[in-house]
Specification:
Number of strands: 14
Distance between the termini: 16 Å
Structural class: alpha/beta
Largest sheet: 5 strands, parallel
Helix content: 10-25%
Strand order of the largest sheet: 1-14-11-8-5
Shape: globular
Oligomer: single chain
Radius of gyration: 16 Å
Order of helices and strands: EHEEEEEEEEEEEEEH
């Protein structure tokens, strides 16, 4: 199963003109979150001289299970509390709290909001996944860039 423009697929669609305010805010949201995983982000959330005030979620620690040796584990990402990741590759992404990612899945340059479940053997690239979404087994989001650019902007929930 493949969705070419789910939730929001960033891909390289800036070349396509979208007139919606939601699209512009979504791009800025994606860029700001992905910048956090860079070596020197514009906003350093670990800077003690500029504390972040908010209502933190008290979640249990995240768990990582890697039973297969050929899986690339977490690389250059921020992972919130309460996540359960089993034999999944995660790179250059921001995962909020209470996310479950099943075996064989790959998450690359994504922002995944709280309480999301990602099924087995899914591929997510350059996208934002909204809270409470359930991504079924085998789903591919943002994989085929040519199709993504030619499809009108759609939001699925």
């Amino acid at each position: 199963m493949r969705i070419h423009s789910a939730v929001l697929v960033w891909a390289e669609t800036l070349k396509v003109k979208f007139t919606g305010v939601m699209w512009v805010h979504s791009i800025a949201f994606w860029q700001a979150n992905i910048d956090l995983v860079s070596e020197h982000p514009q906003l350093d959330i670990y800077d003690q001289s500029w504390p972040i005030r908010g209502n933190p979620v008290q979640a249990y620690p995240s768990k990582f299970f890697y039973k297969k040796a050929n899986v690339k584990p977490v690389d250059n990402s921020l992972i919130g509390g309460g996540c359960v990741i089993t034999d999944a590759s995660i790179s250059n992404s921001v995962l909020f709290d209470r996310i479950k990612i099943n075996e064989g899945s790959s998450v690359d340059h994504c922002v995944v909001l709280p309480q999301v479940q990602i099924g087995k053997n899914c591929i997510l690239k350059d996208c934002i996944i909204d809270r409470h979404c359930i991504i079924p087994d085998g789903m591919e989001i943002g994989v085929d860039k040519a199709l993504t650019v030619n499809v009108s902007c759609k939001f699925y929930r």
